[in-house]
Design goal:
single chain, about 375 residues, 5,6-Dimethylbenzimidazole Phosphoribosyltransferase, Chain: A, domain 1, 6 strands, about 10% strand, globular, binds alpha-ribazole-5'-phosphate, binds nicotinic acid, Nicotinate-nucleotide--dimethylbenzimidazole phosphoribosyltransferase, Nict_dMeBzImd_PRibTrfase
Length: about 375
């Protein structure tokens, strides 16, 4: 007898993802209304607690801690087009800074009590082995997405599977919330291209100033994103399948999603997408950071739409594409502090808020239990 082919980690992960459980969400909603506070007084936090319960398929949802942050680092061929004011070496230099504990992400992680893992999925130079560094280099950076596909399909899958493996390891070691992080000079250009390709929005609305380009470079950056979409045959369409109706098979939708990711994404985008998928497959909530994570979440959602039920938007970055990505995903950011850094900083800041929303459901007394009289009518 022939053996059944072993499913790839990617397909296995996608197959394991379930949408939110409506019963657990309804139970959470009802419990929320019995707690000793005026109904609705916790605003957005009430919705967050209900979402967490639906995602966990149990009410109340477990408090999403301990959390773990993974910062996926990679370089970008499109850097050669002059889309970032920073030299490419800064990616590797910042990896060393993360490992030495000297970046903003380290300070915020220390504040939140969250351990940091740094993953090399595509840094252009060789990085010396170091504690806290996971080496999963798929390539020495991507090809220039404005001249043709940034990655091969195989490279995109390898990076997705690196992200899946990192998520599985962190969850295996006890993480109950995954926080996404990125490092890659020029990755806001790839993010804009991904967001335009998946949402159908014009590059004018998805491209931002990244680390801070001047007006001339900003106009050039928008043109580069346009060229990337045109050369890869992605102009003027939303590629996530949402507008295609039910006629397209799930497999065809996945292939299209993968093609977009490989064409204009970065290796860190693909790895973050895999990381998100694996969190969702394990029903571990994924706290998303900024525009790079938002673009990766669009890729993950195009591969497996139910993944969105397991994502929480940590914050909204200043990059215009981030708001476009979040609105396409139907996610509301917890924090808006006009950050534009990445690294996982926005996700880290939001983690105590996410935990507070979940903790209310475990620790706040009901009107009955506390003997507090409910309002009349
Ligand atoms: C010192 C430094 C630290 C960073 N930490 C995150 N980024 C952020 O900026 C980069 C994307 O912006 P752009 O597309 O304009 O190059 C990414 O590496 C992102 O993580 C940094 C950038 C720099 C320069
Ligand atoms: O939105 C972000 O996360 C961001 C913005 C600028 C540069 N790097 C990341």
């Amino acid at each position: 007898m022939l053996h059944a082919p072993t499913p790839s980690p990617l397909l296995e992960t996608i197959a394991a993802i379930r949408p939110a459980d409506a019963e657990a969400a309804a139970e959470a909603r009802a419990h929320q209304d019995r707690l000793t506070k005026p109904r609705g007084s916790l605003g957005v936090l009430e919705e967050v607690a209900v979402r967490l319960a639906g995602a966990a398929a149990v009410s109340p949802a477990p408090i999403p801690e301990p959390a773990a942050l993974a910062i996926f680092a990679a370089d970008h061929g499109v850097h050669a087009r002059g889309v970032s004011p920073w030299p490419q070496e800064v990616t590797a230099q910042m990896v060393a800074n993360f490992l030495a504990g000297g970046a903003v992400a380290n300070a915020f992680a220390a504040q939140a009590g969250v351990p940091v893992t740094v993953v090399d999925v595509g840094v252009a130079s060789d990085l010396p082995a170091a504690p806290g560094l996971v080496s999963r280099k798929v390539a020495r950076g991507t090809a220039d997405l404005s001249r043709g596909p940034a990655m091969t399909r195989e490279q995109a899958v390898a990076a997705l599977e690196a992200g899946i493996e990192v998520a599985r390891d962190l969850i295996g070691n006890g993480a109950r919330c995954l926080i996404t992080g990125d490092m890659g000079i020029a990755n806001t250009t790839a993010s804009a291209a991904l967001i335009s390709a998946y949402t159908g929005r014009d590059p004018e609305h998805t491209t931002g100033r990244g680390t801070g380009v001047d007006d001339r470079t900003y106009a050039h950056k928008i043109r580069v994103v346009r060229e990337a979409l045109a050369v890869n045959g992605l102009a003027g369409q939303g590629a996530d399948g949402s507008r295609e109706g039910a006629a397209e098979s799930a497999e065809a939708r996945r292939e299209r999603a993968l093609r977009v990711l490989a064409a204009v994404g970065g290796l860190e985008h693909a790895a973050i997408a895999g990381f998100i998928l694996a969190g969702a497959a394990a029903r571990v909530p994924v706290l998303l950071d900024g525009v790079i994570s938002g673009a990766a979440a669009l890729a993950a959602a195009a591969l497996a739409p139910a993944v969105v039920d397991h994502c929480v938007a940590g914050h909204r970055s200043v990059e215009p594409g981030h708001a476009q990505a979040l609105s396409h995903l139907g996610l509301r950011p917890l924090v808006d502090l006009e950050l534009r850094l990445g690294e996982g900083t926005g996700g880290l800041l939001a983690h105590p808020i996410l935990c507070a929303a979940a903790r209310v459901m475990h620790e706040v007394a009901t009107f009955d239990a506390a003997g507090v009289t409910e309002k009349r009518g």
